[in-house]
Amino acid sequence: MKSSPLRLALLLAVFASVLTLAVSQSLGKRTGAMDQLDLLIDVRQEIVSEYVQKPDEEKMVDAAVRAMVESLDDPYTVYLDPEELKPFDREVRGTFTGIGAEVMMDPDEKRARVVSPLEDSPAWKAGVMAGDLIMEVDGESTHEVSLNDVVNKLLGDEGTKVTVKVRHESGETSELTITRGKIEVQTIKGLRRNGQNHWEFMIDPVSKIGYVRILQFAPKTADDLRAALEQLNGQGMRGLILDLRFDPGGLLEAAVEIADMFLPEGKTIVSIRGRSVPTRVFDSTDKDLAADVPLVVLANEGSASAAEILTGALSDNDRAKFVGARTFGKGSVQQVKMLPSGEGAIKITNAHYYLPSGRNIHRLPDAEKWGVDPQDGFYVPMTPAQVKEMLRIRREGDVLRAATATQPAPKVTAQWIDEYLKDPQFAAGLRTLV
Prior knowledge:
By secondary structure, this protein is of the alpha+beta class. It is 35% helix and 23% strand. The strands form six sheets. Strands 10, 13, 14, 15, 18 and 19 form a six-stranded mixed β-sheet that branches. It is globular and about 80 Å long.
């Protein structure tokens, strides 16, 4: 059927109107954006030309960028300048090159002190000990030098050398030349170390109960956990406690891969939804490694992000008993995008995580529900004083020390955990399994 001239004219008129409206809206948006940029340019020009002193223009731009990001009121969306990218990259990758020692600032001595050398690290092999006070680095005193500056002096290219003068807790001093190496941060720990200073994961050889603590979700975490599970399976494991307390999270891929080790095929692990990203659902595969082992997960208000994803996946699918307290509620997805200018990157929130039940993990303003809650009957709160004491004992157990004659390891029972580790959540988890 042919269109009449009048009908064709009307169609053309409507099309022209729609096109005009679309173009005008597009121009309006562009004009609005350009007006806002003009405001920034105008203010900058006035300051540069009229301010009583010559301003630092690089500092002005940096401040404007950070203020723009801060206006989002999102602590997880941040601008990272090139210098800030370096430690961020080390944290995400879980690797760096240096001597391999955890250090802190001693406020009384005003110097950096070694909390613990890392296992099999250059520092450990060279004779650095827990508690050592770092007196000099390459002949330069560390007195009143910031912790960041000391750390940056200890870091360096693989194969290069650094000379560190330390004062041991005995009062003796040693000058140690250490060859820097690639350090992989341990993200999997057990309850205690064996005679070779390696972590043991079987805490009850009679009941065959294992214990694994995940400190963060880094690229090697899933592989390290897989090795621990294979070791436990070889020892006849009949139950496992997975401790995710105070785990700040990390890589989504690591959390999904670990959840897949415990879930049968076809279970939802987590889903992602956002304004500018397509919805994505992660399901378990047939790669389970411990699908039938009774499982308890320990988590608390310090468990965030990837730790919440794993807790929620195992809890919502009735695969584990979750013992502890409601998790932190950091369920936002960040993408790190390098800026075209080369002046750093922006870590920007572009989606939220959702549990298999559909619950949004993220703690939104005025929200009554967030994170992951323990199942009924398994809520075990701890007071701040209890947490402080438990962490003190835990940190002491994490320190790597020279091998000495040791007494036989005590039998790990819920009562022993309560009395000596001061950890009621861990004790409740063990009671749940036994």
